[in-house]
Amino acid sequence: MAEDYDYDLFTIGAGSGGVRASRVAASHGARVAAAEEFRVGGTCVIRGCVPKKMLVYGSMFAEELGHAQNLGWTIEGKSFGWATLRDFVNADVDRLEGLYGQTLANHEVEVFAERATITGPHSVRLSSGREVTAKYILVATGARPAMPQFPGVEHCISSNEVFHLARQPQCLMVVGGGYIAMEFAGIFNALGSEVTVVNRTDRILRSYDEQIVDRMLHIAMGRGIDFRMHSQIKSVEKDADGCLQVDLGGARPVAVDQILIATGRSPNTEGLGLENAAIELGKGGEIPVDEYNRTSCDSIYAVGDVTDRVQLTPVAIREGHAFADTVFGGKPRTIDYSAIPSAVFSQPPLAGVGLTEAEARRVHGDVKVYSSDFRPMKNIFSEHPERGLYKMIVDETSEKILGIHMIGPEAPEILQVAAVAVKAGLTKQAFDDTVALHPSMAEELVLLK
Ligand SMILES: Cc1cc2nc3c(=O)[nH]c(=O)nc-3n(C[C@H](O)[C@H](O)[C@H](O)COP(=O)(O)OP(=O)(O)OC[C@H]3O[C@@H](n4cnc5c(N)ncnc54)[C@H](O)[C@@H]3O)c2cc1C
Ligand SMILES: NC(=O)c1ccc[n+]([C@@H]2O[C@H](COP(=O)([O-])OP(=O)(O)OC[C@H]3O[C@@H](n4cnc5c(N)ncnc54)[C@H](O)[C@@H]3O)[C@@H](O)[C@H]2O)c1
């Protein structure tokens, strides 16, 4: 196929979408090369989902060791060392990066450890100056933290830096009200840092069910996280002793030792040379694509965060796989974006699939809501009288499930399975017909009233 080109496929970016697409295209017989300017594995593996989840696990021991003491365990000399957790997590990231590189090598994907830019519909230039050609180009360059503009923003960090902090912050300010803000507020609160969340509106986690989010807020405040709603940083000044003085518009500045900005992620399209293939960007700098991930240029496709459809790893992976099957496997495939389950690994975590109650009322008019508001057995050991909340939204007449939303220990693990039922179009009756598995938290799902 590649008689006139150096490769059949040149992938720019070896993250979730790019690695999957390259590997599958190669297994369909394509000659594939990929360029990665930072580290193979991309955001999820290197500075996203994976190290974040490991920090969540590490931080949860603080509470669990407390529970253990209530259950008769004596733990002498209990203390926490941030550097040990950080280094453990980063060592595992190194291991995973190696595995991803190995996968590409096993599939004979040639990897260029450098930046690539597009010079034409079939050509890219590597930062070494070398120009290569390919029948198809896949842009899988992901996204980067969007930093707001205010004086002193250079003293703040993003999620890129949070995995490498020299010291655990004593006082951490987190800016934003999305996934990253809630997850890192939870991690550092559990580890004992004083955490303040600054959010410009009074709503956090906008895409989740309001009642579930309210429960999360209530629990987070009970655990000592300070929420400053309708607030925005005006400026930050750094003292001689390294302390950050934050002007939030109040009478006095707030002093913290670290500020984490988590205000969304922008597609990595700047300086990518898309204009050389006459590709115009969308309003947020994303690459517009059709249902087959094709851009306005026939030989250039794009998948994952750079297209700003759903910024989640499993979605980028599916898009990459579908692209490779479509273009190199002779099996045109599109992705069904309905009922994608997602979770926020806050403490406790929350998870949801399908329509929220408000969305369901807007779209379907009359809906029924079944719920269970319960105290998980696991929390009986703890000083926190925190309650879990599960909700099922169903269509009033057909009883077909429109959405399931939950907060409580292990909610993401439980929701993944419940999402199969929502995707399969099951009704509430199917849950009622299923015998409870007792004692478990998941049994609440078949006991909803
Ligand atoms: C802190 C954090 C936590 C997250 N947690 C979760 C989670 O729990 N669950 C979940 O589903 N999602 C999570 N996400 C989102 C998830 O990481 C992304 O949706 C996913 O990584 C997108 O994959 P991608 O292939 O589009 O891009 P990426 O994985 O970002 O890969 C893009 C790659 O392209 C490289 N690149 C960019 N430009 C060039 C160029 N010109 N030349 C060469 N290489 C280039 C980059 O270095 C990068 O390695 C999280 C994100 C963050 C930041
Ligand atoms: N558990 C997961 O699946 C997970 C975890 C982390 C990240 N992600 C993905 O990464 C993406 C990025 O995460 P994120 O938390 O940065 O973004 P987000 O889109 O979830 O949240 C951004 C938040 O920042 C606020 N904001 C935007 N501009 C602001 C400004 N100038 N000042 C103050 N607040 C501002 C928004 O109102 C919103 O609350 C998510 O959309 C998600 O798809 C997923």
Automatic annotation (TrEMBL):
Keywords: Disulfide bond, FAD, Flavoprotein, NAD, Nucleotide-binding, Oxidoreductase, Redox-active center. The keyword Nucleotide-binding applies. It comes from the Bacteria. Its cofactor is FAD. The active site is at H438. Residues 8-320 form the FAD/NAD(P)-binding domain. GO terms for biological process: cell redox homeostasis; cellular response to oxidative stress; glutathione metabolic process. This is Glutathione-disulfide reductase. It comes from Qipengyuania oceanensis.
